[in-house]
Records
---
Amino acid sequence: MRETGRKYDELDPPQQAGLQARLQAEVRANTYDASSGVVTVSDDRAQAITAVAAHYNQLFSDDAALQPLREAVRDQENPIPDAGHRAAMNAFFFWASWSTVTNRPGE
């Protein structure tokens, strides 16, 4: 919406394809710096990671707002009560998704 002023669903197929290609290139780009051990992400990707982590933090806590979703997926109430464990889970989710889609040097 930032670039076109319209929601993704309102774009024509070529515009959607262009956004998909840019997203794929960004997600697959290997931004790991072996000398520092750091993975660098763009501001947009950092915002997306933060939003997804916030959702999972709510989902796996006792947040009443997501109780209907927990019931829909038959999850227990407050399945991960420790905030530190939820943060570790979110870090694992990022690492697992990053490591499965990023390009590997020499491959």
---
Amino acid sequence: MKPIRILHTEWSGGWGGQEVRIIDEMLSVRDRGIEVFLASTAHAKITEKARAHGIPVFTLPFRGNLDFKTLFGLIKIIKSENINIVNTHSGKDTWVGGFAAKLTGAKFIRTRHLSNPINPSRLNFIHSLADYVITTGESVRTNMIDHNRVPADKIVSIPTGIDEQIFNRHLYDRAANRQKFGIANSEIAIGLVAILRSFKRHDLFLDMAKELCSRHDNLKFFIAGDGPKHDEIANQIARENLQNKVIMTGYLQRPVELLSALDIFTLCSDRFEGVPQAVMQALMMELPVVATSSGSTGDLHDDDNFQLIAPGELAPLISAVELLINDPHKREYYAQRARSTIVKKFSRSVMTERLLTIYQKLGCKRPSFFL
């Protein structure tokens, strides 16, 4: 039986949770016998990452929704590589990728990663043409059913799966990693791992850090990640004289090492989140977490496994984090409840199995060793 062959498309040049999800999804289904390909721009970070993992990559301009050069390029790829499914991920590539799939007879899957509403105009019809829509959070799924004319039986929420074999605190030397990141035994380390974009609200994280440092002298804060707001965040740190208290690590190849060294994890986003990978990773690592309810973050909240607070407000953020600073028993309470729900519902294996089920629904048979 011939394997399923899937072409993923992504025009964005950045490297954040969305791009990480795409690569991880491709690798997870490849491990189960699916052949995967990527079409992206020549200078996109995801192009480099895909090639590093041995994924065949085709580069196209993706200059706009009606970029005919990209459209015909995708049609050529679909035909020459015998593609069964085109899976698009962002705005521009969804239009050209969707049309290319329809013109060639390939199945069309649209994955929606962000939680911000999609223009409900009937001119914005591309999503309703998809054979299947995947969202990364339940609230995104509901919005697309209600406002974008996507049939409820053709859309499903599949959050990004976290590899429980990697994000396991018992596999890491916490003391060595605390030493690596310069965290003293007496210090409480509080971290945020996220692409440096405005909706992640690093400014709110720094306002929290300033206030808490005025009350406690044993705190150290970490901002891990890179992105367009780097200089703005660095300037705020300097302006507030927080250079000795807040460390910007830059992009970490292995964020799990920082997570193993932290005492508290936070997410401050005020919009655009699906189900945030960083929160899932922190919970998988049995960290006490304070996260805003932006997007579908609430999908992760189960059996009081972390503190879920309102987005965009400083006072609740300070109050929730300070509760954990002051009470080590509370930190242990949340740590003990953190991992189990993520393993059961949001692991990499769960994500992979749900993806394979969708491919089967679209008429693409699984390889015989799945039957």
---
Amino acid sequence: MILFLSQAPFLTLRAQDANNPFELVDRLPETARMSSIAGQLTNPFEVVPHKKPGVAQVLAENETAPFTPFSILPRGGGMPQSTLFWVLVIVAGYLAFSIAANGGAAGKAWLSFLSDNGLNVMQREAFGLVGNAPYYFLYGSFVLNAGLFIFLVVRTFTKEAYNNLPFLLMCIAGAGLAFITKHLLIKSVGWLFPVTKETERYNFLMIVFNCVLGLFLMPFNFLLAFATEYFRFFLVFWTLGLVGIFYLYRALRAADIGVKFLGTDQFHFLLYLCVVEISPVLLVIKWATVQG
């Protein structure tokens, strides 16, 4: 009994060094006993100070880099005015070719811009690829002028930050991609819902209005490119206001196409407005705000 009591502290220490605090180490095989004694594990009931996980620590310290969607754009200035002049000459030459290819296309587009009757006549005549080809040429002129206008507006507010030819080409490509995506979205709405006739009319309405807007943007692009700095700021806001009034008028004409769905399909009509019309504008504004 005395011998057992004298060995009790030693057994307690040995038991705490084992993997299981309640394991009798002496009853284990030789190899298991040696590995168990060699592994000096901590007490499973010991209170360990809390450590922040890696992800939580990064978020808590706010070390994440800000999202800059425009960081991939080619920065730098130095594009001479002569290069911009020749780009404008090429765009003006393309517009002249588009009008000369079918002299009546520009006049018909203007009449369709003014009245629904002109739009109906023009849509009946523009059948197939051959009938729509003159308006596609005018639409291409609008895309070129829209990209140029975006470039000139950015150059006005950022000085020499993006005054280079690669950024100009990216503006033109971005304008074309944006409007092609818009037309495809309208087309998909016609495929998903029984509104094919209305979506085709709305798509044609956008083509007509953009053709006319391209004619208006051409002289303003020349003025913005070579005007003085003070007059350039005035022209930017004047042209943006004109474009805003232009698209407001187009929205009123487009509302006449979809107003009959308000009585029966309010949800789908509002869903279309949010997804196709409002969300792209808000997305661009958000990107610009984050970049700023």
---
Amino acid sequence: MTFDIFWAKYPRKIAKRMAREVFNRMPKEDQQMALDAIDTHVKHWNVEGTEIQFIPHATTWLRQGRFEDEIVLQVVKGKEWHETSTGLIEKGREFNLDPSQYQHFYQFKEAVHQAVKGNVINVKFG
């Protein structure tokens, strides 16, 4: 059950079975650390505009203990929603769009702009 919470939050949905095996072999303390850290990492990737292909697979993230990495979130102020990846992702969520549904972030960005204009596009690529 704990893994399912982690998986629901992890943005790159690849090799779920392997990630589950790695997660379940981890000590309970590390599992909790991973759960506690995932939200901050996701925010960091969003703020940085990290394209989905550059986010490590969950198995890699867990095996390397990336949940122990120190993450510093930088807040970008004074920009419109469409000028930052975080703003685009938040706006996309209003239309049930998620970057993981698209092969490239620019496709997600276009879908969000179309949704805002009233032409909702919710297509999975690849």
